[in-house]
Amino acid sequence: MTLKECYEILGADLDGALKRLSNEKLVERFALKFLNDTSFEELEKALGDKNYEEAFRAAHTLKGVAANLSFSRLHDVSAEFTEMLRGGNAPADEAYMEIVRAEYTRTVEALKQLQGA
To answer: Which one, of 49, 27, 46, 48, lies nearest residue 38 by Cα?
Structure first.
């Protein structure tokens, strides 16, 4: 799979990532580093512990990383969830985490395919 194909599958904005990171090799390098990012795991753990302040920080980090890489769909769902957690509040819709998880999983699976190319 090419970087362009990966971004197309994700509904992500490769042009936006290229504007930020200047070339495809750099975008690919940082996109693949996302596989080592721990913010999603930290979000799950914080939610399990009902530590909503930490969950907010993890969701906010996930949102930021997704924005920097122009993973538009992941950014949008994590931004929505971040707002639910703002102020250390329990999310108004706890089931929304499933939407975040599904988009995160989709992103990771596409990146793993890119990595194997």
So the answer is: 46
Note the pTM of the prediction, 2 decimals.
Answer: 0.93
Largest CA distance in the chain: 42
Q: What is the pLDDT of residues 22-64, one digit of tens each?
A: 999 999 999 999 999 999 999 999 999 999 999 999 999 999 9
Q: Considering only CA atoms, which of 111, 115, 117 is closest in space to residue 10?
A: 111
Residue 73 CA to residue 92 CA, distance in Å, equals: 21
Residue 67 has pLDDT above 60, yes or no: yes
Q: What are phi and psi of 95, to 5 degrees?
A: -70, -15
- How many angstroms separate the CA atoms of 76 and 82, rounded? 10
pLDDT, position 92: 83
Reduce the secondary structure of 70-87 to three states and give it as a string: CCHHHHHHHHHHHHHHHH
